[in-house]
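Reader question, answered in our methods column.
A reader sent in the components of a multi-part assembly and asked whether the whole thing could be modeled at once rather than chain by chain. We filled in our standard form and ran it. Here is what they sent:
COMPLEX SIZE: three components
ENTRIES:
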Amino acid sequence: MSVFLQQLINGLSIGSVYALMAVGYSLVYSIMNFSNFAHGGVIMIGSYIGFFAMTAFELPFATAFCLAAMGTGLLAVLIERIAYSPLRKRDAPFLYFIISAMGVSIFLENIIIASPIGPTFRTYPKVFGVAPFMVGGVNIGRLDVMMFFISAISLTLLIFIIEKTRTGMGIRASAYNLKASALMGVNTDRIIIIVFGLGGLLAGIAGVLFGMKYTVYPQIGNITLKSFIAAVFGGLGSLPGAVIGSILLGVIETFTSGYLSSQFRDLIAFVLLILILVVRPRGLMGKITEDKA
Amino acid sequence: MKLLELKSVTKQFGGLTAVGDVSFVVEKDSIFGLIGPNGAGKTTIFNLITGIYKVTEGEILFEGIETNSMEPYRVAELGITRTFQNIRLFKKLTTYDNILTACHYNARYGLLDAILRNKKYRVEEKGLLAQAEELMNIMGLEDRRDIIAGNLPYGLQRRLEIARALALKPKLLLLDEPAAGMNPDETARLMALIKEIRDNFKLTILVIEHHMDLIMGVCERIVVLNFGKKLAEGTASEVQANPKVIEAYLGEEEVVVC
Amino acid sequence: MNWFYIKGILILSGINLMAVLGLSLLTGFTGLFSFGHAGFMAIGAYVTAMGTMKLGLPFVPSLFLGAAGAALASFFIGRLTLNLKGDYFCIATLGFGEAIRLILDNVQYFGGARGWPGIPVSTNLTTVVIIDVIGVVILANLIRSRHGRNFKAIREEELASQTIGINVFRYKMTALMISAAYAGVAGGMLAHLLGFIQPKLFQFIKSTELTITVIFGGLGSISGSVIGALVLTSLPELLRTFATWRLVVYGAAVVFIMICRPQGLMGGYEITFTSIKGLFYRLSRPLGKKHAVGGDKK
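And here is the structure of the entire assembly that came back:
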């Protein structure tokens, strides 16, 4: 029973970080209808900013954390301006966005490898201490708890922005129909920048948390394939869907590696992806689109 | 002789009834009109006939064969084809290639014949080229042969869409607002063309239109739809005199102006 | 720069070309985007190697076996996913590509994640060139037939294709299976060039590279795919001295192409004997008669 609980908590904490990434994906997808494969690169950069802020510059955790989030927020906006905005002006098909995103992703990953930072794996300093909590005979890692809470707070803030503010209303309107929103006086250019900025912020947070949980390395962005699966699982373009899908995926993964074998962990994720696409392509809560003749 | 028959056809999207309990019969070799205000369900009926949507209730019979559950390409094989309200040409292909592509149905050679370029391929392909050439001449598109379809003037795009449909040698041709965006002069020419097509190709035509003079001028029989229901049916003059039709159109000023 | 080195690059380009040609049919001509073709290459590689190593077949029949294996896998995948719309089909192929790799990681019969050494090195320049030429001819003949026109029609306008009687699902399936078979042959040749295969060779990034090559050459152009495969395979090899920076440049170049020349090198045009003749003709008569253009009212 205690093993079960421990696995569950592990799964929840991993799932909550997946959610941070998946929400960024989903936000962009809901407005621009393409899969932003550059998101992984942004997460990776966030992870490095946090790492170097804490080690090379010896900044406290909170400052490093904020720096990483802001840095990636800016980076995401910059990517949008350079790699997507010209395509958007031209009304290019979605594939061009995807390819452009992959170009960005290849660029970011390899610029880190080629730079003096290099391909080495680096370990974050231990901030929260290593001694686990003991609650009713269950070991709970301090980091896991922190991960869960930081993610939960960030997501709550995001949902608040989207549901309660004027900008949030603009985002929701643009997600419903970008062109019509523009006609109704929503500054969609601004909305898109904000969406990329928000997605970038969350990516930075996720990057730092992930770097702390595991290590920092140039390919860490590949983990976003998982959050992407989670987003599809929950329904592309739906934020609550992305969160629920991520948590479920996190839990399923930890249980698979806990009870079956860690080798099957990734396989399960992709098999799940295929199953969802075949059985229910719009995911748990995705929007339905029907072609009109 | 009955060519197409709709028997109490109903189509629901979720809770919304787009078409409710509509029945009518299209006689062979006739030109049949489908009119009604915007959102009356006209295009939905076209989508049902061509198999793009599946009927919720009722039956559609073409030459006595039930087409309800058929895929659109199967319906096309039976001899029903259509044009679209918002023109759907193969935009990046030339005029000629648009027609030639649609001729495919009149050749039977398989993938292997194409790869080997054997005699069967060469003979049949030659036939297709000749057929496309002929259609282009009939439809007066021969001087636009190598122009990319998306660059054609609007009126010619509509004409090309009809030409592409005719390449299938259909028995029933559905025209969805063929005169949309045309001036009176072009509309008059289109009317002549529709009649000409019917006589030359010996086919039946079902047409949706807002231009009343076009509908009244060419259609032998008309069905009026409103809110997905059949409001009236009859000849042009019968429909025009029907008080229910007049009521439905009152206030629909843009329709009257057209 | 010796012949041995150039030969190596040419062989590699030729192998990539085979996979790119297949993807060109699927993406360039039928309008379906796949991020899972590395998976089909993997199946081709493993099945071909099984043919030569476990069944004791000669190389070429084994290649056929590999192609058939990949096509068969694509058939099942297609049945499940071809009805999905745009983005979702992409994602599904991505999932399949990764799943195939992860499954191979766990198949100990083929060496699992550690890889499978000792495969006979049978691929040489002659076989690659012959297979490529056959690949190009088959594809070109296909494209110039009614079937090729139907593929293009589906790319342009799916709904209209249905209403002129094209069985869209069947044609998509055909394109997918042929493209998978091409990728399978490429995988088989790669296995018998390296003498060693490992699931890691067929990662998601490989699929991306193939798609990028097709787009670089120009969607809907076979000659574009040929040039694309030659340039994009040999360029990184020639830039080996800048090893670490070449992928940075590659990534930036991809973004640059998308922004500045999305139609790719050839932009849907083909280099054929007629077009070369036509070019000379036009060059020799610069004041030739102009054809009527669209846009004017009659």
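What stands out: Chain C has twelve helices and two strands. The first strand of chain C starts at residue 116 and ends at 117.
Send us your own complexes using the same form.
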